[in-house]
UniProtKB/TrEMBL annotation:
The Sieve element occlusion C-terminal domain, residue ranges: 484-638
Name of the protein in its database record: Protein SIEVE ELEMENT OCCLUSION B-like
Superkingdom of source: Eukaryota
One Pfam match: SEO_N
Boundaries of every Sieve element occlusion N-terminal domain copy: 32-300
Residues making up the signal peptide according to the UniProt record: none
Protein's organism: Eucalyptus globulus
Matches recorded under InterPro entries: SEO_C, SEO_N, SEOA
Length: 641
């Protein structure tokens, strides 16, 4: 009993006042940034099933600490508190509690003992933190923070609740004296008032840090792709240290050497967590907007609704600028018009611009009620960028966005199809019927469509000369190295091979991703080889992280995953002697070797970009005669291409 009373009175087990030396605070502050120690604590995490209801526990903690800090504020700033009470704004608002919720009392009590008793007895911050993290190992990260903060809330709230009792309540008065409350509420030392003001602010900041993590856990459930935007484990580690700092300062009942040191550190951490949480909310809003616009783009009611989605109409009801008249205009002016969207940066190529000018000057273009709207995609900002935009805008007789600030960045992400890049003037008047017709023209080669001189200078000459052409791309540098080392050996041995690494060729991927929607939106027959070859190339990169295409001129010899192609390349020394034997050419031998190493997978997948607006009901597998199952798949590529 004497030990308990000693702690209640702010004394150690010998009856002397607790003293917290500067070294203890120094070690505590150093723990915030000790990444090695933090990793050790994070590794204790071993969550079990049936965790605590986060929202219910947070409401209890929030009510307790907000109510308590209001009492402290009335003591630290009695004049301000009196003024707020007169104006009716001094009473804290409480969150509704869930009926029947049972908090983890055993864990809260044990952690409370660690915070109030053992921390000051041992004076070893790390030993206390090790004990806390092991005690909390079975709980989720957010619940670790909440249970620790609950422990502080229990004894902190219980202590200050006695400050509100009536003088006639002798039991409460006796308990208040035992807890040293009169010495706090009626101190002779003004510095002690300042200490509790600092402590109250630090507790409120720690509560706000915890709320960021609670809200993040709740808000990120429907956007799993953003679930790593906040390092919750690191945040909880710092929250627990912050709670320990608050507990030590409160239990010691003394002024720190520098009472603002911990507050400054906790404020810095709070600002960092809050900034990450605000970034997360912004990303989540973008994802929700993306999903909304994607539904709209796939099934628009009219072109006005769709084009309005490209701009922040609320900021300016006239977002368009008509170059020929030098006037602003509403999107509604495009109603019942056939609108061609031009999506580009400020480096609009002369090739694209010349096609546009030719299209725009055609009499048929205006007779058929066609309009062009330029929507620039610009990452930079500043006066120089604005000047470049305005100069280019004045050279265009068609519509453009009036101001760069009006462009809905989320909407731009959805705009993937650009038939001009694929077909040029042949695509006019840019309707589904025309797209269907041109894709059905005889002699269309998907390889020639992708491998243009615009992307690979003079490649058309190589195609006409029927040279061997090797296109490849892979995410792993090791794979690229293996491919290129093998190709070098082949070329050194006299085989004429033109090789292109398209891994980082944005033009190539833009063209591929333009061809796919253009083809798929014609309700293409996916049984035909042209469509399956395009999908195969895209899938090999998306699924296996790399692909390779070998052609002789425009004739495709191999279009497969790098997994199988690299096996053939690595075995080059064993099969090169077979070339030109019994009339077998290089490509024939290459194909034979591939057939030997290729293993038919148990399941095969085709990846279809989600921006195409059309998903086929059935697809025939190109290797066997069966039809493929249609499933929906969600994936995260962790920032890969």
């Amino acid at each position: 009993m004497s030990t308990i009373l000693a702690h209640l009175l702010g004394m150690d087990h010998k009856g002397k006042p607790h003293q917290v030396d500067q070294s203890m605070w120094t070690n505590l502050l150093a723990s915030f940034d000790d990444e090695k120690f933090m990793k050790e604590m994070v590794n204790t995490h071993a969550p079990e099933e049936g965790d605590v209801d986060v929202q219910s526990l947070f409401h209890l903690v929030d009510n307790t600490l907000h109510g308590t800090t209001a009492i402290v504020d009335s003591i630290v700033n009695p004049t301000l508190s009196s003024l707020q009470g007169t104006q009716g704004s001094g009473r804290p608002s409480f969150k509704p509690l869930k009926e029947g919720f049972n908090p983890p009392l055993a864990a809260i009590n044990e952690v409370g003992c660690q915070l109030t008793c053992k921390a000051l007895d041992t004076k070893n911050v790390r030993q206390t933190l090790v004990s806390l993290f092991h005690e909390l190992s079975s709980y989720s990260w957010v619940n670790k923070a909440l249970i620790t903060l609950s422990s502080l809330a229990v004894f902190y709230g219980d202590f200050w609740l006695l400050a509100r009792v009536e003088p006639s309540d002798k039991l409460a008065e006796s308990m208040a004296i035992l807890k040293g409350l009169p010495a706090i509420t009626k101190p002779t030392d003004p510095q002690k008032i300042q200490v509790f003001g600092v402590l109250s602010e630090m507790i409120e900041t720690t509560l706000n840090m915890t709320q960021c993590n609670v809200d993040f856990e709740h808000d990120s459930k429907d956007v799993p792709e953003l679930s790593t935007m906040i390092d919750v484990a690191s945040s909880v580690y710092q929250i627990i240290i912050s709670v320990l700092a608050c507990s030590i300062q409160f239990t010691s009942l003394i002024s720190m050497v520098d009472e603002f040191a911990c507050l400054r550190k906790v404020n810095m951490i709070h600002h960092s967590i809050k900034r990450h949480y605000e970034d997360f909310l912004q990303k989540k809003r973008e994802i929700k907007e993306y999903q909304r616009l994607q539904r709209l783009f796939n099934a628009p009611t009219d072109n006005v609704e769709l084009i309005n989605a490209l701009f922040y109409i609320k900021d300016d009801p006239q977002p368009l600028f008509l170059g020929s008249k030098k006037t602003k205009d509403k999107v509604e002016s495009l109603w019942r018009k056939n609108v061609l969207l031009l999506i580009s940066d400020l480096k609009l190529t002369s090739h694209d611009l010349s096609i546009l000018v030719k299209i725009y000057n055609e009499r048929k273009f205006h007779e058929e009620r066609y309009k062009i709207v330029w929507v620039p995609i610009i990452e930079q900002d500043g006066e120089e960028v604005i000047e470049q935009f305005q100069n280019l805008q004045l050279q265009m007789p068609w519509y453009s966005v009036h101001s760069l600030k009006l462009i809905n960045r989320v909407a731009i992400r959805i705009i993937k199809e650009n038939m001009i890049r694929v077909w040029g003037w042949d695509a006019f008047p840019f309707t589904g019927a025309v797209a269907t017709d041109i894709w059905k023209r005889p002699g269309i080669s998907w390889f020639e469509l992708l491998a243009t001189d615009f992307i690979f200078p003079k490649i058309q000459e190589d195609i006409k000369a029927e040279k061997y052409i090797f296109l490849y791309g892979a995410e792993e540098p090791k794979v690229i190295q293996e491919i290129e080392e093998s190709l070098k050996k082949m070329i050194d041995d006299g085989f004429s091979i033109i090789a292109f690494n398209v891994t980082k060729s944005q033009l190539f991927w833009t063209r591929l991703e333009s061809c796919m929607p253009s083809k798929l939106q014609t309700r293409a027959d996916l049984h035909e080889s042209l469509m399956q070859d395009i999908l195969r190339l895209y899938t090999n990169f998306k699924k296996d992280g790399g692909f390779a295409v070998l052609t002789k001129g425009s004739r495709v010899v191999i279009n497969e995953s790098h997994v199988h192609i690299t096996r053939v390349l690595m075995q080059y020394e064993t099969w090169k002697k077979l070339v030109n034997v019994n009339g077998k050419t290089f490509d024939m031998v290459f194909r034979e070797q591939f057939d030997r190493v290729y293993i038919l997978p148990r399941c095969h997948h085709f990846y279809i970009p989600n921006m195409v607006g059309y998903i086929p009901d059935e697809v025939k597998f190109p290797v066997c005669p069966r039809m493929m199952n249609n499933i929906v798949k969600f994936e995260c590529c962790h920032g890969a291409h």
